[in-house]
Every structure is written in structure tokens, then in C-alpha cells.
Amino acid sequence: MKNRLTEMLGIETPVIQGGMIEVSLSGLASAVSNAGGLGTLGQRVDIKLWHDEIKKTKDLTGNPFAVNLGLYLGDVKERIKIILEEGVKIVVTGGGNPSAIIRELQDAGIKTMHVVSTTEQAKKMEDVGIDIVIAEGGESGGIVAKNIISTMVLVPLVADAVSVPVVAAGGIGDARGLIASFALGAQGVQMGTIFEASVESSASPAWKERILKARECDTMVNEAGALHARVIKEEIFPGSVMTGQIAGMVTKVEKVSDIMTRIVDNVDTVMNGINVQLK
Ligand SMILES: Cc1cc2nc3c(=O)[nH]c(=O)nc-3n(C[C@H](O)[C@H](O)[C@H](O)COP(=O)(O)O)c2cc1C
Q1: Nearest-CA neighbor of 102 among 74, 73, 76, 64?
Q2: Which fold, 4-273?
Q3: Which atom of ligand 1 has the smallest separation from the CA of 173?
Q4: Cα(141) to centroid of ligand 1, in Å?
Q5: How far is ligand 1, taken at its centre, from the CA of residue 96, in Å?
Q6: Residue with CA at minimum distance from ligand 1 atom 20
Q7: 19 Cα–ligand 1 center, Å
């Protein structure tokens, strides 16, 4: 499939695996990229380990992949140096304002993406020259905005507010979610939770097991200082397993290639099942 997003990123299928700190390492990111989507190498707090993961991802896939750059980390300058040295082509920023670094990345031929949770943030990002915005609703796993807006509400508003391509994220798990996102004005989707439980994910077997067991009502938003994170409820699983509401759809640990094939194969069925005639 071809649209503005796939052309900009050089990918076949408009499905992005969202960066997941310590969970989406080289194995997962390369598997998604090898399956025609865009894998994103997640953060590693240790910069050396993170650098190694970039090198490994380059070895494991010849297809485009993205690197997640957390702006809250103290060593952003060193990380940018590594990104430039390693010839990374796509960077997803999060956890801060990327306006001071967008130009430097773009001058090196890098496409920049940023995660937003309001239309105001999306417009600001467009103003500072971001290439693509990821509109993430509060259904998602991981860090969420304090004032949660659902994907259904956020995506059409962001699509109306900016002219750069919009990627929908939060609560998307299959071809139905992909088609719905197109209807809302997005050019593609980003999924985290669905890939968190995949074979190639670096989450532990016990962690994956909890995701399989979790129903859509088994997550909550935890407040940790200024941050809010969607996690599996404490009474169900003590500890802090970040996952999204769409965990309710995950029933087995699958290979990334099977997840991606199912999405692509079901697009026609979903489209053929839509027959809206209101008059
Ligand atoms: C375990 C976990 C860790 C995550 N870590 C990050 C992160 O470090 N940076 C980031 O931008 N997004 C992070 N996310 C968000 C994902 O990249 C993605 O946008 C989100 O999971 C999409 O919603 P979904 O979980 O409903 O599919 C994380 C999500 C999960 C589930």
C-alpha cells in the first residue's frame, strides 16, 4: 500500500511498532521492519547498551527502522551523536520538546516523528517543522497524558489541525483498528501493546503471561510523580507492568510476522464488511 506516510518512511505497510522502553529492542524492531512495517528501537537507559542495540538492529534488517529518543534523559546530546554516526534515518522523540533538535536531525536527512496527546501539541510540532505526528490516545500502554483523551476523539481533531501525516496510536490491535484509523483521518497506525506480548518482545515470559490474561478493564492509570502510566491493576498483578487496554485482545504469544500477516490479510474482509448506506 502506498500513501504519504509509507512514501516518507520507505515502508510497505503503514503499521508502526511504537518504541517501548527496555521492551522493543533489536529483535522486535527488526522483526517488524522485516515484515514490512516500521520497527522502533525503544529506549535503553544505559547509553552503551542502547548504542549496541542500534548496531544490532542495523545487522538484523536492511529495511527502514526508527529509533526512540527520550528527551528526558540527561545525555540527549551524546545520543544524537550516536544517531548521526550510525546513520539512523528515522527518529521518534518523546518525553519533552524536540524543537531545539529537529533541524539538526533533518539536516542529516533524518525524518522526525513526535508523539502528541492534544491538538495544541500537534500544531506546535507542525510549527517547529516535525515531519510526522503520532496522535496517541489514553487507551495506550505506557506513559499517558494527565488529561486523557481517547484515540477516537483525538485522531480526527489532530488530522483537522495539521497538514503533516498523522499516525493513530492507542487501542489499535488489528485490521479493524487500522481501517478505523484511516476513517478518522490518519495515514497509518502505531501499536505497542500488541507487539509487547509477541515472541520477539524483550518482556519476560511472566510479563507476557499477564498481558494474555488481562481483560480490557484490567488496566489503570498510575500516578508516579508528574508522570501518569497505564499499567495492569495492582490487585491483578503487583508490580508495574505497563500495557494498554487493547491487552484484552491479546490471547497468545505470537510471532511478529504472524501478527503483521493477519493485519494485512484481513484488510479486504474488513473493507468488504463495511456497507454504510444512511439514505
Ligand atoms: C511497555 C510499554 C512501554 C512504552 N514505552 C514507551 C517509550 O519509552 N517511549 C514512547 O514514546 N512510548 C512508549 N510506549 C508507547 C508505545 O510506543 C505506543 O505508542 C503505545 O503502546 C500505543 O498504544 P497501545 O499500547 O494501545 O498499542 C510504551 C508502551 C508500552 C506498552
Answers
A1: 76
A2: TIM Barrel (3.20.20)
A3: 27
A4: 5
A5: 15
A6: 192
A7: 6
Q: How far is the CA of 196 from the centre of ligand 1 (A)?
A: 9
* Terminal Cα-to-Cα distance of the chain (whole angstroms): 31
151 ligand 1 Cβ < 6 A: no
The C-alpha atoms of residue 26 and residue 30 are separated, in whole angstroms, by 6
**Candidate of 15, 16, 21 to mutate for ligand 1, largest count of ligand atoms within 8 Å of Cβ:** 21
Is the minimum distance from the CB of 18 to ligand 1 under 6 angstroms? yes
Does the predicted TM-score (pTM) go above 0.70? Answer: yes
- What is the layout of strands, in order, in the sheet containing 188-191? 15-17, 188-191, 166-169, 132-136, 111-116, 90-94, 65-70, 39-41
Q: What share of the chain is helix, strand, coil (3-state, %, to 5)?
A: 40, 20, 40
Q: Is 15 in the pocket of ligand 1 (CB under 6 A)?
A: no
For residue 142, the CA-to-ligand 1 centroid distance in Å is 5
DSSP lists the bridge partners of residue 232 as: 219
- For residue 251, give the 3-state DSSP assignment: coil
pLDDT digit of tens for each residue in the chain (279 aa)?
A: 899 999 999 999 999 999 999 999 999 999 999 999 999 999 999 999 999 999 999 999 999 999 999 998 889 999 999 999 999 999 999 989 999 999 999 999 999 999 999 999 999 999 999 999 999 999 999 999 989 999 999 999 999 999 999 999 999 999 999 999 999 999 999 999 999 999 999 999 999 999 999 999 999 999 878 889 999 998 766 678 999 999 999 999 999 999 999 999 999 999 999 999 999
Q: Which residues contact 114 (CB under 8 A, 6 or more apart)?
A: 92, 93, 94, 98, 125, 130, 132, 133, 134
How far apart CA 105 and CA 102 sit, in angstroms, is: 5
Ligand 1 geometric centre to CA of 143 (Å):
7
